[in-house]
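Fill in residues.
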């Protein structure tokens, strides 16, 4: 298995550093095949890995934290429990590719393409439809919908990965939404800083700068994804006054323990990225092997509180099935409550009484 996957890396070494840093080269040379025994998995859930991300995998261990996120697993076909569209995004689309679930926010599903096919992806149902972009008509329809609804203040341009568009096409999309007076902020949801950091160049950063306020949300799931390259990519974005928030997914074998999560979140702060959400893995068909019990997430948050900068602690959220929306899950600190008195247990396990006001 490792031999098959080693080919692109050898190729790269021959081609030299110049091409390695070209994001188009990274996409053109992405790994899209797998050993025969995984063919049936690929038919349903194709593989797509940039040589850059592949080069970060350190071991042949199937639960290596980076390997598990990108290399297909036979487990994906065994999973009978999940849904293709667990968040019922398709039900909440008033126009094609625009999810309107909350009154003031919309999510633009900007394409079917990502720089990597993450094996745990909520939208893996879309992959087999091919790597297609949205047409200008699709974009115009979404823009028209938003322009007619003054309540919408926040437009999230998200996955597929909008950074797979050329900078000019991306600017076309952003500008259209920015030109709507009542749209206050634009968020870009992208995993490019993690899986294709070469994409984040000065040209892109200076384009984004013109459309601020923009917020960029990304998805680092493990400390090993914080590299010289990903740090540089984040720095380019930060240096034009755009904040970066991280939305990790809690994944079994990848980051489902307090130590790994703490290292990741500390590492994120050190590169100027704020841990925003830790997602409970959605009940997606083909990703069941990544799921952890709800308790795991709250235990991790509880272990972090008090021991690491509060800025490093994300909100642990579960996105409910049937489009129920996100619910934050907090560890319980109240031990007992009577009249105005509450007893709390702090991070050291000490019991402390607090007297409330009227
Ligand atoms: C997650 C999500 C949002 C954004 O939620 P925030 O809590 O504001 O980050 C918006 N729309 C949809 C459909 C979502 O799934
Ligand atoms: S980058 Fe996001 S949308 Fe794209 S495959 Fe990965 S998890 Fe899914």
């Amino acid at each position: 298995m490792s031999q098959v996957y080693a080919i692109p890396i050898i190729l790269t070494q021959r081609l030299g550093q110049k091409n390695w840093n070209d994001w188009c080269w990274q996409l053109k040379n992405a790994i899209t095949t797998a050993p025969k025994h995984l063919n049936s998995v690929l038919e349903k859930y194709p593989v797509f890995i940039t040589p850059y991300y592949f080069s970060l995998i350190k071991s042949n261990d199937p639960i290596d934290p980076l390997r598990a996120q990108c290399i297909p697993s036979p487990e994906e076909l065994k999973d009978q429990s999940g849904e293709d569209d667990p968040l019922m995004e398709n039900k909440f689309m008033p126009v094609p590719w625009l999810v309107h679930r909350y009154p003031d926010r919309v999510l633009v599903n900007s394409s079917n393409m990502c720089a990597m096919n993450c094996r745990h992806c909520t939208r893996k149902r879309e992959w087999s439809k091919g790597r297609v972009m949205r047409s200008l008509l699709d974009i115009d329809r979404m823009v028209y919908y938003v322009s007619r609804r003054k309540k919408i203040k926040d437009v999230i341009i998200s996955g597929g990965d909008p950074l797979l568009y050329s900078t000019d096409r991306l600017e076309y999309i952003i500008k259209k939404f920015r030109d709507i007076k009542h749209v206050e902020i634009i968020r870009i949801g992208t995993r490019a800083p993690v899986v294709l950091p070469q994409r984040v160049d000065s040209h892109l950063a200076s384009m984004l700068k013109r459309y601020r306020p923009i917020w960029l949300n990304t998805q680092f799931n493990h400390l090993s994804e914080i590299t010289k390259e990903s740090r540089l990519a984040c720095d380019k974005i930060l240096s034009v006054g755009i904040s970066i928030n991280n939305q990790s997914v809690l994944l079994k074998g990848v980051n489902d323990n307090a130590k790994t999560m703490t290292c990741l979140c500390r590492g994120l702060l050190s590169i100027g990225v704020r841990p925003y959400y830790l997602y409970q893995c959605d009940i997606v068909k083909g990703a069941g092997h990544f799921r952890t019990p709800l308790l795991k997430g709250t235990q991790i948050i509880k272990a972090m509180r008090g021991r690491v900068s509060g800025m490093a602690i994300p909100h642990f959220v579960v996105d409910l099935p049937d489009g129920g929306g996100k619910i934050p899950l907090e560890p319980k600190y109240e031990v007992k409550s009577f009249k105005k008195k509450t007893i709390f247990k702090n991070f050291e396990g000490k019991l402390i009484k607090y007297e409330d006001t009227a």
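Residues 99, 101-102, 105, 107, 156, 326 surround pyridoxal-5'-phosphate (ligand 1) (CB under 6 Å).
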